[in-house]
Write a structure and sequence with these properties.
With 190 residues, the chain is mostly helical. 49% of the residues lie in helices and 12% in strands. Helix 1 links the parallel strand 1 and strand 2. It is globular, with a radius of gyration of 18 Å.
Length: 190
């Protein structure tokens, strides 16, 4: 199980760790990797609290913390995972979810902000309402316990990720501009 991103309260890493504790109870082979560093004013205290939480839950031998990776190494972390978890309490776009899906990794994410548009619930991963760790654990276990489902979701994730390529995004932006220009009767500038 992988969490990748900034470590700050907004990102819900505590939810991911608590969810993993339930996964670890059922899957003695499961490991969790947290890739990212403390960010923002509350980041250092959040990181310290997460380390304490891992110790409290007796997961120190199953949860590993890693500093942020250079951009060209991030896909290696995604591809090493069976599932990416993104329990953000707020999210503008959801780049981690888009990148994970492009690498063929199912995503279990909060149903907030951009994540709702990146993850196709039940197709490329699962969207969770709220931040109850047991809900995240159930979705993670569903993927880990059913290799056929995980493979189907992974394939759909790769296919969907094409919607977020730079060329596809540029094309949609140009379509939007053309539509606005037509709607307001503007003519192209010369």
């Amino acid at each position: 199980v992988l969490y990748a991103g900034r470590v700050q309260p907004l990102k819900g890493v505590d939810v991911a760790i608590r969810a993993f504790a339930a996964v670890a109870d059922r899957r003695p082979d499961a490991q969790m990797m947290i890739v990212g560093g403390a960010s923002g004013e509350l980041g250092p205290s959040e990181m310290a609290g997460l380390l304490d939480l891992v110790a409290e839950l007796d997961l120190a031998d199953r949860v590993s913390f890693h500093p942020p990776l250079p951009h060209d190494r991030v896909p290696v972390a995604y591809r090493a995972a069976d599932v990416v978890v993104a329990p953000s309490r707020s999210e503008s776009f959801g780049l981690v979810a888009a990148e994970a899906q492009a690498c063929g990794v199912p995503v279990v994410a909060a149903r907030v902000g951009g994540l709702e548009h990146i993850v196709a619930d039940g197709t490329t991963g699962f969207l969770i309402d709220g931040w109850d760790p047991s809900d995240y654990a159930a979705a993670i276990l569903r993927l880990l316990d059913d290799p056929d489902l995980a493979a189907q979701v992974a394939a759909a994730a790769v296919e969907r990720s094409a919607r977020f390529s730079w060329s596809a995004t540029g094309d949609r932006l140009l379509e939007l501009y053309d539509g606005l220009r037509s709607q307001f009767g503007a003519t192209p500038a010369s």
